[in-house]
Amino acid sequence: MAASSAPPPLLPRLLALALTLAVVAVVVSAAAAARIRASVTPISRSLYHSSDSLLSDIKALVARHPDKLSMDTKIASNKGYSTELFIVTFNHVKESTANSSKIHVLLSFGQHGRELITSEVALHLLYILTEKHKIAGVDLSSFEKILENLVIKVVPMENLNGRKRVEEGELCDRRNGRGVDLNRNWSVDWGKKEKDYDPYEENPGTAPFSEPEAQIMRELSKSFKPHMWVNVHSGMEALFMPYDHKNTTPNGASAHLMRSVLENLNHRHFQDSCLVGSGGGAVGYLAHGTTTDYMYDIVKVPMPFTFEIYGDETATTSDCFKMFNPVDKTTFDRVINKWCMAFLILFEEGLRNLRDAQVVSEGGMDNFVPMGGDIVERSSAGKSSPDKRKLEGLDLGMQELRTYFRLFMLSTVLLMFMFCSRISKNRNRDAGNIFDT
Q1: Per annotation, catalytic residue among 237, 308, 348, 349
Q2: Which of 103, 106, 134, 182 gets the highest tally of CB atoms within 10 A of its CB?
Q3: What is the pLDDT of residues 31-56, one digit of tens each?
Q4: pLDDT confidence bin for 383, thresholds 50/70/90
Q5: Is 211 known to be catalytic?
Q6: Can you list the alpha helix ranges (DSSP code H) found in 251-328?
Q7: What pTM, to 2 d.p., does this model score?
Q8: For residue 74, which phi and psi values (nearest 5 degrees)?
Q9: Long-range contacts of range 207-210, CB-CB < 8 Å, 24 or more positions apart?
Q10: Quick one: 374 and 388 in the same domain?
């Protein structure tokens, strides 16, 4: 009788089972990945410019209108990472852009790479300022007189490197070319992390202003000295004022001034449909190290705002392009027209409110002193006071000095802890050697 066959050894059976499970896992993962990819809306190339084509169109527009537009390129680098920013200046009556008789407006678009719609608004706004005399049939001739009182600097794509990452397929990435959120890299309350902190979304960098993009924008804000600042984002529809890092708005006349401008804009143009208030109070989460808070606390911009211009609440978190950008032409055109018109109304409201608050006069800006709290008018005697200039300069630096001091103290505590731990270990080792002997 033939001998009965022995069962196969246990180890080969386990290896075969593991191999089978691995193959099944790969198949399931591939199917899941295919479903995820299929659910993500791609960039609508028929609606949106590439970063290169958008900048090319802007350069051509500047070349056609040298009487109103000029363009500067700023390059900066830090620890092997570099970037360039393009800054377009609109000056309706081409004099010196430093002319103190005009209100200075600074607008930044595309700070987050995935928010392509914001840069499209920047391009169309420049067209409207120079070539288009109507928006959706509305005659814009009434705004001509307002524009004569403004110098507007537009940064159409603050995060060029991050934008290119998005164009290469990273549709959910909001960070710059080395993974830092530019709207967390500024010094006011920098580095603080909430309980729901996500480094993919909110990486603040290694230190305040570690990123070249933020360095360029800081220098631009301090040299241009804007009276109005708008940081343009997408994800919802809202008109925000400081603060982002706490659930409150500033005190004093400046807060009343900002809120008045935003509420008038919301009522006149949006039929009270936008959220209005502080970013930290209205969004539902606090943001630390943001540009707008720095513009208010350090640069002393009287009217610093953050605008959220579009959001699709029906989009899933994996469908980032659809969540932050219109995907059909009708919605795209509506958003472009609505927000270009909103900026024109903002210019009108800002100019009127600054004058009503005696921050500016009909004749010029010579009496203007930017203040973080109450708006005051500067006397002619005060202009030449060296003591006042020293106090203003001291005030500008105190916030950043406090931030760096906190970092220094934290580093000192950590070093002392490590030093004490090393001494403790050495003592324990020496004690062990005594007992061994």
Answers
A1: 308
A2: 182
A3: 434 333 434 899 999 999 999 999 99
A4: very low
A5: no
A6: 253-270, 279-282, 291-297, 320-324
A7: 0.76
A8: -115, 135
A9: 207/407, 208/289, 208/400, 208/403, 208/404, 209/185, 210/78, 210/180, 210/185
A10: no
Pair 86, 166 in one domain: yes
Q: Do the Cβ atoms of 245 and 280 come closer than 8 Å?
A: yes
Tokens of 142: 């009434």
* Single-letter code of the amino acid located at 294: Y
Backbone φ and ψ of 155, nearest 5°: -100, 100
Burial of 59 (0-12, 13-18, 19+ CB in 10 A): middle
> Whole domain around residue 420: which residue ranges?
384-427
Asked whether 120 and 49 are in contact (CB, 8 A), the reply is: yes
What pLDDT digit, counting tens, does each position of 88-115 carry?
A: 999 987 655 445 678 999 999 999 999 9
Q: What is the pLDDT of residues 255-289, one digit of tens each?
A: 999 999 999 999 999 999 999 999 998 888 899 99
The total domain count for the chain is 2
For residues 318 and 421, membership in a common domain is answered with no
Residue for token digits 């760096």? 404
Reading the block at residue 335, the tokens are: 């958003």
> DSSP states of 384-426 as a string?
T-HHHHHHHHHHHHHHHHHHHHHHHHHHHHHHHHHHHHHHHHH
